[in-house]
Amino acid sequence: MITRLREMVARGYAGPAIAVALSAMRPADKPPLSAEAIRKKACALGIALRPVRPPKANFGFAASDTRTILQKRAAERGVNAAKLAAQLLTVIVADGLVGAVLDVPVRR
Known about the structure:
By secondary structure, this protein is mainly alpha-helical. The protein folds into two domains: 2-45, no CATH class; 64-102. 59% of the residues lie in helices and 0% in strands. It contains six helices and no strands. The protein has helices spanning 2-10, 15-25, 35-45, 64-77, 81-94, 98-102. α2 (15-25) packs across α3 (35-45) and α4 (64-77) crosses α5 (81-94). The radius of gyration is 23 Å and the shape is elongated.
């Protein structure tokens, strides 16, 4: 059950959902687990039940007008600026366009 607890935490499940899933694995004569019991067990094992939040996007490297344009274009597409920036970088790198975008020849 500890392995299953670790797996569910890694997938982002909350304490109550883990309690329900692990209770279903227990024999019928055992009482169901509570979210509090799961929290205590996780704490004893050094497992954090709170999801790790990704760091906030920091466009401190971009000029103010560039940041504004990126935010506008992102809003037009219904995403946030960080997601649009990540998508742009992914496509630029995957398609080998870094030199073309920066207008710098690639050294070989």
